[in-house]
Amino acid sequence: xxxxxxxxxxxxxxxxxxxxxxxxxxxxxxxxxxxxxxxxxxxxxxxxxxxxxxxxxxxxxxxxxxxxxxxxxxxxxxxxxxxxxxxxxxxxxxxxxxxxxxxxxxxxxxxxxxxxxxxxxx
Amino acid sequence: xxxxxxxxxxxxxxxxxxxxxxxxxxxxxxxxxxxxxxxxxxxxxxxxxxxxxxxxxxxxxxxxxxxxxxxxxxxxxxxxxxxxxxxxxxxxxxxxxxxxxxxxxxxxxxxxxxxxxxxxxxxxxxxxxxxxxxxxxxxxxxxxxxxxxxxxxxxxxxxxxxxxxxxxxxxxxxxxxxxxxxxxxxxxxxxxxxxxxxxxxxxxxxxxxxxxxxxxxxxxxxxxxxxxxxxxxxxxxxxxxxxxxxxxxxxxxxxxxxxxxxxxxxxxxxxxxxxxxxxxxxxxxxxxxxxxxxxxxxxxxxxxxxxxxxxxxxxxxxxxxxxxxxxxxxxxxxxxxxxxxxxxxxxxxxxxxxxxxxxxxxxxxxxxxxxxxxxxxxxxxxxxxxxxxxxxxxxxxxxxxxxxxxxxxxxxxxxxxxxxxxxxxxxxxxxxxxxxxxxxxxxxxxxxxxxxxxxxxxxxxxxxxxxxxxxxxxxxxxxxxxxxxxxxxxxxxxxxxxxxxxxxxxxxxxxxxxxxxxxxxxxxxxxxxxxxxxxxxxxxxxxxxxxxxxxxxxxxxxxxxxxxxxxxxxxxxxxxxxxxxxxxxxxxxxxxxxxxxxxxxxxxxxxxxxxxxxxxxxxxxxxxxxxxxxxxxxxxxxxxxxxxxxxxxxxxxxxxxxxxxxxxxxxxxxxxxxxxxxxxx
Lengths: 122, 681
What we know:
The complex is a heterodimer. By secondary structure, chain A is α/β, with parallel strands linked by helices. Chain A has one domain: Response regulator (Rossmann fold), CATH 3.40.50. Chain A is built from five helices and five strands; from the N terminus they run βαβαβαβαβα. Chain A is globular, with a radius of gyration of 13 Å. Chain B has 23 helices and 21 strands. Chains A and B meet through helix 1, helix 3, strand 4, helix 4 and strand 5 of A and helix 1, helix 2, helix 3 and helix 6 of B.
């Protein structure tokens, strides 16, 4: 069974990689270029999983996660955030904001799929 | 589009990212304490590093990491943003660009030098962890030995709302080996106090597995920090590896865990930071936000489309010709319809190719910044009319000439701060780049408030290099035009003259190749202004179709000032002198029939088409003016590179080819003829 995944990243190349990887793994992918766009898309349709970057213009990933968690409809939707090694502090904040898990950048596609499967439980 | 190469996308993006970083840094030089700018630069560096590492640009990632670290310290207030730091990162940014373009090339020790500079700028101490890679990798341990574990865990009450699924965790444990799971439901509150989204169950799991301890930690990797987890090895010796993880994961013993499964103590730890994000929502650089609304199209596709539109225009004019000769009303009306449509399509196409000159001007901020440091002059760059739009090809080709001109303005035009103060000016010199549209042309000018061009030196130089006769009378504009002469920019000229000779002939050639023209105005002691007048577009122009002998030629309509009749008397009178009087001024003219050696007799009613570039005019004598004509410009083959009289060719409605006259060249030829006659007579 497929799942709808929303990926939020300001980097087109990372969006592309994520999209290709997840689409090849059989998931349906929707893209957003920043937190505000991600939030809007999450509000207008339902996703089984959200993968987001943290550092983004307009609205950063952290704020987006907080906003999402305030929406009753988004309760229980797993959110994986992309982070770099040096973001230890950010990681803690993202978790506190309500993220489910994280993936350290640079990630390799296999790892992404593995973690998506883990979080989705399928 | 799914076949796009992520690396290519990354390169494009990295270029944008670097531009944004550069713009941020340049802004920062003027306002070192602007926190938003620091954040913006940091974010740019961070993104570049992250994506770079993802797409295999390891050297870039490692190098950028240091700059990011430096900016992170500024962001956190540990060090102040100084102009040294900004300059160091600006320089480093060029290196990053090189690392993006040629990741595998040997960049020598440029990187080390830059890092040393950076280090010095932030006060020296930085840990410098070099490599960034490392992923949330899951280790597959080779251990074959079977172990049995007793695992007890409870999750924070809010973990299900945050997307963690305990059933998934249990499934994963089951995947590791044989499992017995027992849920501890003692902490579940009475029904009327129960919040359904909260988790109150803890679990006891007995696992027999070939995997080692780290596999269990991997199952809990996302929740490890907040949860209570205890893992005991039941059979065999207590594994030494278990100890450190357990310490980190759960200081609380199992009993405490089941008594207080929610462990609220761990949650508040994260609360104090909730207020932070507000500041980080600072608006992104405008360009980045805008980019999302645009569609990016490779330039060659636009060119292809332009070609097709060009062919359509040609086919349409053939159709018009056929239709006008036909009595069929229906055919005529279709032809008119198509003429209108192709005209509109052409206009739309033009707009697609237009880009604001801002993209061109923005590059100069960096140039000016660097030149100011290099020359020790204080320079203010002012840009005007940045939203003026020009054909993208024009913009690309203008970049180099403009660099020359701006360089010249700063190198030779502007005085040193001391000299400026001595002559009663402000310490800072101003260079103004402006663009504006005027009819079918865009005028781009570079103005400085420096010392102006020294006429005596220009004349002396021109005389000594044989460009003009000693004492030859020249108008001021003619004198100034001398600096564009190829022989003018010699080594001696660069050092001794007011120096505007460097590469100016190249500038002029480039501008003329764009069918544009250059005007100079210079007031001694007050500065100079060089204006480039460039046609708005290159691909399709409105042209005046004329006949000379049996051939047909196109004159770009934008250059045409007026058309006159050349009466037989005037023709005879002017023979040998080649001037006509036009409202009290003498305008030289060229007989195209002679120039092209048509060998035909002139028509009785010859016409003169007066064309101009800037202030200079010349008349072209033609046999017949056919009318205006939408001209699709086709460039000529390399074999025709030396044919200066023509700038291109076009295909007429009947399929025949007409050459397009090069206005710049013809005006120059006319002026030369005038000069010779003046000397002679």
